[in-house]
Design brief:
CATH superfamily of one domain: Response regulator
Helix content: 40-55%
Number of helices: 15
CATH class of one domain: Alpha Beta
Radius of gyration: 22 Å
Strand order of the largest sheet: 2-1-3-4-5
Shape: globular
Number of strands: 11
Length: about 400
């Protein structure tokens, strides 16, 4: 069954425009004029997103988000409005909306939103939800500078939260990286010349602190750990991890991208950042994606093995206890330093990724064990697109198991 996007709008022009664009991205568009119809349509088929036009609607962002969480927790929310205020943007951020589109809608922003719908939200580093119409974007480019020879890049001015050095770095323009699909481990599939992960991690040119660009400046580090991190020995160690590459602040190669993720995983562990165990797993997973794009099978496998180790640690508190999902007290007792409680969706994704990485690494027994456990999670059915994805990959595993059995018993 195809996944659908439900569109709530009373604007005849935008209804046609959105319907055509959503269909081009491989989703089934469903139109509604009232909120009750949105809720009804969402029960008929797997729904990946609601696009809600706030004009001429009585429901607020908070009310829509509350209904979405109750009816379809898997749904991603995109809001539209002809009037933009900071309060509206903050409300969208507070309700974890995927984006806010301001009329007249810039095609680029809509493309960005539709591309994000194909990615696993738990693994998506969202830089901002504030809207950018075309004039705002042009003005920002004049202020920050743009590498004119590269159509996908822009500059950002940042300050390192560890050594406090200001610097300028490159990043993707948010609206220039369309994703057509995802691989079974959630790796985005897109044009061969574009790699969405390449500029995801910022690297300080002075101390080599690395983190997601959307979280870089807000990182808080314990002073004692920062002093150790900034020691000559620590900096030299990170230079070796970086392969002594020149600055990460300009246009990057795939090798720059790979090393940026390795640095980020190393730094998260060294600084004992909040939730660093799962965070390091994410960094190594995305590192493996770039290794795959580079055609480096051995390095991809090594990154997958490291990601698997960290994800196993992150998921350990949620392992079945006597065939049953553990209660809150058992989960809390299993928490090790470096772990933060996972939301239900995060539990599903982390458990699934353990099974998927084990499958890709050839450990079919471990893959079967974790897939079976994830499929028994009591809250799995809240996330319809994840249910479909997990079952699809579990079937691929079953086919591999059957083929192996046939080869052993010709």
């Amino acid at each position: 069954m195809s996944t659908q996007v439900v569109i709530l709008t009373r604007d005849p022009i935008y209804s046609v425009f959105l319907e055509m664009t959503v269909r081009e991205y491989g989703f089934v568009p469903r139109l509604a004029a009232v909120m009750e119809k949105v809720e009804e349509l969402s029960t008929l088929a797997p729904t990946v997103a609601w696009i809600i036009d706030l004009d001429n609607q009585t429901s607020t962002v908070e009310q829509v988000a509350k209904k979405a969480r109750k009816l379809a927790p898997d749904v991603k929310l995109v809001f539209m409005s002809s009037a933009f205020t900071r309060e509206l943007a903050k409300e969208c951020i507070a309700q974890q909306a995927l984006g806010l589109l301001v009329k007249p809608i810039a095609i680029a922003r809509l493309v960005e939103m539709l591309s994000l719908l194909r990615q696993e939200i738990t693994l998506t580093e969202s830089n901002q939800v504030l809207p950018k119409n075309e004039e705002d974007a042009k003005q920002e480019e004049l202020e920050t500078g743009v590498p004119m020879e590269h159509p996908f890049l822009r500059y950002s001015n940042l300050k390192c939260p560890v050594c406090f050095r200001p610097f300028r770095t490159t990043r993707f323009k948010l609206w220039t990286v369309p994703v057509s699909d995802t691989d079974t481990d959630f790796c985005p599939i897109c044009n061969e010349s574009v790699h969405p992960e390449l500029y995801t991690v910022v690297v300080c040119p002075a101390c080599y602190f690395a983190h997601y660009i959307g979280k870089f400046e807000e990182t808080r580090v314990i002073p004692e750990r920062a002093r150790t991190f900034l020691s000559p020995v620590g900096i030299e160690e990170r230079k070796k991890i970086a392969f002594k590459l020149e600055s990460f602040c300009g246009e990057r190669t795939l090798l720059h991208g790979i090393k940026s993720f390795e640095l980020a995983a190393h730094d998260a562990e060294q600084l004992k950042m909040s939730g660093w165990v799962k965070l390091a797993g994410e960094f190594y997973l995305k590192c493996s994606w770039l290794c795959r794009r580079m055609g480096h099978g051995l390095h991809e496998k090594q990154a997958q093995e490291k990601a698997l180790d960290f994800f196993v640690r992150a998921y350990k508190p949620y392992r079945a206890d006597g065939g049953k999902y553990p209660g809150p007290m058992i989960i809390q007792s299993r928490m090790e330093p470096g772990l933060e409680p996972l939301l239900e969706r995060g539990i599903v994704v982390t458990g699934f990724l353990i099974g998927e990485l084990a499958r890709r690494l050839g450990d079919l027994r471990m893959a079967r064990e974790y897939f079976d456990e994830v499929l028994e999670l009591p809250f799995l059915n809240k996330f319809t697109s994840l249910v479909t994805h997990v079952n699809h990959v579990a079937r691929l595993l079953k086919e591999t198991e059957q083929a192996l059995l046939n080869s052993q018993n010709p």
